[in-house]
């Protein structure tokens, strides 16, 4: 029986105040009822087996403990070698509350790597994410993170952004360039917060979106050329583009898009379709981010029968009451 023991490694924080029962057999050592303080955190060893192989002693160890979310994310965001895109995850700030962390280590005890990290999982409870690009922090986050040296899997992360729900699920690959394979996000936002930068960039067109927007997007590929595919539902939002087009609250309106993100600074949309039935605007464009957003692109409606438009859609301020019109923006 070990009492008040310690373990000091070269590349890992110290483990102190160790208590455990050690059973020695001819071909192995079992460690049970083990408890200690690792890097200032109270942990339990749920599995500890050391096999005496011909090639050398092999260890297989599982530990768990209640760990602050900030400490876990700092570890997860630095997994793998530094590559394009890693700074994006490291820019995420996580705070508040703790959760149960489980880690697995294995390897030849006396090799250079020794007991190497194999995989782990962490249960998020009431965590706050501050993510660059989101109008407000993601709060009250619950879910699970599964991670290994090669990848991180986000399972059922759910939280709130300014009172709107948000979910995140998918896999992040750490090998070579950081990439999503894939990552799915659903979220609700207030239009005036999401498009604030774009409204400044094209203020001469009096562009306005107010009210709730609900987004679903799938992201796939390396971070420096991320592929996007998704849609934004704005049925309960008010949309106005100068005197060209206005959509009232309650009128269905969906924006679908396919595109690529370039170096986190711009999105090139290969396909955009704004459907406010019976009106459809299709096109392509380039959206640049920054203190002030900018938009370059074109949307075409094709032939449009003015008399078929419902009263919730106003085109050109109702200056034209009937006929066939083609809109290009």
What does this structure look like?
The protein has helices at 69-76, 86-90, 191-194, 196-201, and strands spanning 2-7, 15-24, 28-38, 41-53, 56-68, 93-95, 98-108, 116-130, 138-147, 151-161, 164-173, 179-190, 207-210, 212-222, 225-233, 238-241, 245-247, 254-262, 266-276, 279-288, 294-305, 313-315, 324-328. With 329 residues, the protein is mainly beta. Strand 18 (254-262) and strand 19 form a beta hairpin. The chain has a 19-stranded antiparallel β-sheet that branches. A four-stranded antiparallel β-sheet has the order 13-16-17-22. The radius of gyration is 27 Å and the shape is elongated.
Layout of helices and strands, plus pairs?
Elements: E1 2-7, E2 15-24, E3 28-38, E4 41-53, E5 56-68, H1 69-76, H2 86-90, E6 93-95, E7 98-108, E8 116-130, E9 138-147, E10 151-161, E11 164-173, E12 179-190, H3 191-194, H4 196-201, E13 207-210, E14 212-222, E15 225-233, E16 238-241, E17 245-247, E18 254-262, E19 266-276, E20 279-288, E21 294-305, E22 313-315, E23 324-328
Overall pLDDT: 85
Beta-strand segment tally: 23
Indicate the structural class: mainly beta
Residues in helices, as a percent range: under 10%
Main sheet record: 19 strands, antiparallel
What is the terminal separation in angstroms? 78 Å
- Portion in beta strands: over 45%
Element string (H = helix, E = strand):
EEEEEHHEEEEEEEHHEEEEEEEEEEE
The global form is: elongated
Q: How large is the radius of gyration?
A: 27 Å
Low-confidence segments, ≥5 residues, pLDDT <50?
A: none
The number of helical elements comes to 4
């Amino acid at each position: 029986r070990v009492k008040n023991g310690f373990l000091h490694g070269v590349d890992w924080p110290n483990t102190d105040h160790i208590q455990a029962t050690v059973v020695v057999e001819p071909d192995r050592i079992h460690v049970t009822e083990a408890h200690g303080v690792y890097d200032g955190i109270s942990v339990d060893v749920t599995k500890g087996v050391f096999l005496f192989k011909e090639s050398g002693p092999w260890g297989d160890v599982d530990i768990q403990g209640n760990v602050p979310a900030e400490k876990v994310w700092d570890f997860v965001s630095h997994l793998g070698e530094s590559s394009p895109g890693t700074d994006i995850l490291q820019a995420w700030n996580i705070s508040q509350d703790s959760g149960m962390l489980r880690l697995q280590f294995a390897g030849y005890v006396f090799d250079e790597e020794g007991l190497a990290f194999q995989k782990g999982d962490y249960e998020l409870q009431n965590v706050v994410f501050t993510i660059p690009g989101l109008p407000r922090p993601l709060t009250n986050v619950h879910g699970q993170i599964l991670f290994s040296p090669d990848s991180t899997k986000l399972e059922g992360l759910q939280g709130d952004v300014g009172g709107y729900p948000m979910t995140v699920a998918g896999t992040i690959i750490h090998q070579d360039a950081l990439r999503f394979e894939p990552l799915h996000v659903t979220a609700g936002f207030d239009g005036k917060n999401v498009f604030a930068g774009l409204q400044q960039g094209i203020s001469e067109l009096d562009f306005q979106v107010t009210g709730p927007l609900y987004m679903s997007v799938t992201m796939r590929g390396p971070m420096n050329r991320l592929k996007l595919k998704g849609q934004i539902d704005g049925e309960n939002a008010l949309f106005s583009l100068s005197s060209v087009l206005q959509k009232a609250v309650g009128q269905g309106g969906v924006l679908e898009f396919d595109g690529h993100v370039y170096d986190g600074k711009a999105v090139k949309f290969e396909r955009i379709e704004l459907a406010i039935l019976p009106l459809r605007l299709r096109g392509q464009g380039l959206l640049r981010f920054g203190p002030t957003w900018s938009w370059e692109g074109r949307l075409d409606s094709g032939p449009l029968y003015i008399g078929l438009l419902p009263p919730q859609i106003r085109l050109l301020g109702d200056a034209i009451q009937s006929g066939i019109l083609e809109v290009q923006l």
